[in-house]
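The methods section describes the discrete structure representation at length, but only in general terms. An entry of this sort, consisting of the sequence and the corresponding backbone structure tokens, reads as follows:
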Amino acid sequence: MLKQVYINKKFLTLGRSTIYNQTVHKHTMDELKKDTFGTGDLTVKLLGKNREKVIEAEIKAKADGLLAGMEEAKWFLKKNKIIVLDYKKDGDKITQGDVVIRLKGKAKNILKTERVVLNLLQRMSGIASLTNQNTLKISENILLAGTRKTLWGLLDKKAIVVGGGAAHRLGLWHAILIKENHLKLADHKEILEKAWYAKKRGAFIEIEVESHAEAVKCAEIIKELFARKPQKKPVVIMLDNFQPAEIEKTAAEIKKIESQIFIEISGGINQDNLAEFRKLENIEVISCGFLTHSAIALDMSLSIIN
């Protein structure tokens, strides 16, 4: 149940989600509009009639990794009257020198779109590759999820999913996530009860806690709420900035109080220490900001081949 809502594939596919379509448009068509700025490509104009010549080109990987962004790239290229002759699929492993995609179209269109399509593929493939590398450091029973620390919003989250991770909350509209600042304006029981009985409560309910005592308090409240009215959506307690030993103790007590609660850990988890959390029991999710805010673009280049 938690895996299904945290991965959210149906919201991250072109043609099925208006919000996702808008995000892809923003980082492709809107970026192209800014790049040409109503004037067009000044350099291509110097080519004269050759700019109308139909050519073929290919994008090659200059590093090893996992490919992401192909669905979005194909959509963007088609919008710009470029034919895709051959391509690798999202989730494919690629090595340095691999041809990722072969194109055919007018020279002016291929050259005009070059930087936008490379930025798209490099950014998303970089995130997918980083996610894939780090899923190997944790148990198969634990979801590695991103956070909202993104540069490209839903595109970054889609790349995490391609890499084998989970998107988590897609936006403020998608789920109830009660954090420290919310709890400065309403107490734990008050806001949890309101979340529990809200008619439009989103995909899941989650509350962030910062101490063992706070976690136990929330678990007791949630247990009482489950007794009053069963909750069909996942209910999650996030342990923020807990050390491994403290996580073990707190998670065990939460599950003892109410086994239906899912447990997420977050805060201060990075590539260097992620493996320390791999053997923890009673944990369903590890969420990490570094998957998006520290990802390095996977290097690629475009070349005309005839």
Notes: The longest strand covers residues 54-61.
